[in-house]
Design goal:
Blueprint (H helix, E strand, L loop, with lengths): L6 H15 L11 E5 L3 E6 L8 E8 L8 E6 L2 E7 L3 E5 L7 E8 L5 E8 L3 E8 L18 E9 L14 E6 L2 E2 L5 E2 L3 E5 L9 E8 L2 E10 L6 E8 L3 E2 L8 E4 L3 E9 L3 H5 L3 E7 L2 E3 L8 E5 L7 E10 L6 E10 L7
Parallel strand pairs: 19-25
Antiparallel strand pairs: 1-8, 2-3, 3-6, 4-5, 4-7, 7-8, 9-10, 10-14, 11-12, 11-13, 11-15, 15-16, 17-18, 17-20, 20-23, 21-22, 21-24, 24-25
Length: 346
């Protein structure tokens, strides 16, 4: 509680509390409530949208008076934490999810003016999960990556609570989406917890996605900003065995040691779109020692080779894959088949 010698500041704080009562979620510009009384006092909060148990720094700026010559008092949940001349910064840690933290700052200028500001933080969180419609083989443990022209679905996973601590379902929340700093009006609104975008080229700036989540029944606000990485398709070649099938553990890098008269290889077109792979909208061009090889039209991803005792010690294999929908989606790879002479008695 403020002492009597700071009664002027106390009066301003009382006025401030009256203003706070009238604040509604529509007044929220950031992920916290902010009210000022008595004059100009600007607070910079970092991070702008602090989540639960997050370290926060508040820095003040004033206009028309000198903050460096002013007495500044900071209170956390009505308990004074620091006081002094020119104390323009304050650090604290937010509470648990949904736990309210009230920061009050009272300024008494050198000329005797009293200015106060109150910031109310209600920690909330929102994550953004993205999923690309690109292809990876069934045995691949990782996620499909985003490549040029692929469709990307971004889903918001919010954690906003009521005053009683109950999580608010997404259907009751309002989602405001931004793509490359432009509002997505049609894709924003109540319950609209996902959007879909088309990825640009890998040489362009990566897409920037922002989401702000609010609730009509709670003052909590959550904000998240992410950058979606865009890469290029790539191809990986695997041995294909008659009984074992694709030998996923033996992806071919630069060379392959052949120990059979007949060898088969399969190319996996990573990160091309699923529709291209499923609808055969990819072309596969194989070459051995620069000579084009005709493959089975039903299995163009498979290369079958036959080696004889008189063959040279190695053969250079090349594979080119490109999209019929977008010629910028393409990839190539080469490797050498090395003949194991001991197998053939050489």
């Amino acid at each position: 509680m403020m002492t009597k010698k700071y009664s002027a500041v106390g009066i301003i704080l009382t006025t401030l509390m009256a203003l706070v009562v009238g604040l509604t979620p529509s007044h929220l510009a950031e992920a916290y409530q902010e009210t000022t009384a008595g004059g100009s006092l600007v607070a910079t909060v970092l991070p702008k949208a602090p989540g639960p148990q997050t370290d926060v720094t508040i820095t003040l700026a004033g206009y028309g008076y000198d903050l460096n010559e002013s007495t500044i008092a900071w209170a956390l949940n009505n308990k004074e934490q620091q006081r002094g001349i020119g104390e323009k910064s304050f650090k604290f840690t937010t509470g648990k999810l949904g736990e309210i933290t009230v920061i009050t700052v009272a300024v008494k200028t050198k000329e005797g003016r009293a200015i106060a500001k109150q910031l109310i933080f209600i920690p909330a969180e929102v994550d953004i999960l993205w999923e690309a419609d690109t292809y990876v083989p069934p045995f691949y443990p990782g996620a499909p990556l985003v490549t040029e022209g692929s469709r990307v679905r971004l889903t918001a996973i919010p954690q906003l609570t009521t005053t009683s601590g109950r999580l608010i379902p997404s259907s009751q929340l309002t989602f405001t989406w931004r793509h490359n700093y432009r509002n997505l009006v049609q894709q924003s609104g109540r319950g609209k917890d996902y959007i879909e975008i088309t990825a640009p080229s890998a040489s362009s700036d990566a897409p920037v996605i922002e989401i702000t989540v609010t609730s009509p029944t709670s003052d909590a606000t959550a904000y998240r900003k992410i950058t979606v990485p865009v890469t290029v398709p790539e191809i990986i070649i695997y041995p294909l065995k008659p009984l074992a099938g694709v030998v996923a553990s033996e992806a071919i890098a630069e060379t392959y040691q052949s120990k059979a008269e007949e060898e088969s290889f399969i190319v996996e077109p990573y990160y091309f779109t699923k529709s291209e792979v499923a609808s055969n909208y990819l072309t596969y061009t194989w070459r051995i020692n620069s000579e084009p090889i005709v493959t089975n039209v039903e299995t163009p991803r498979v290369l079958n080779t036959t080696q004889k005792k008189a063959d040279q010690g190695e053969a250079n294999v090349e594979i080119f894959v490109s999209s019929l929908n977008n010629n910028l989606r393409r990839a190539s790879k080469s490797f050498k088949i090395i003949l194991d002479k001991s197998f053939f008695g050489l």
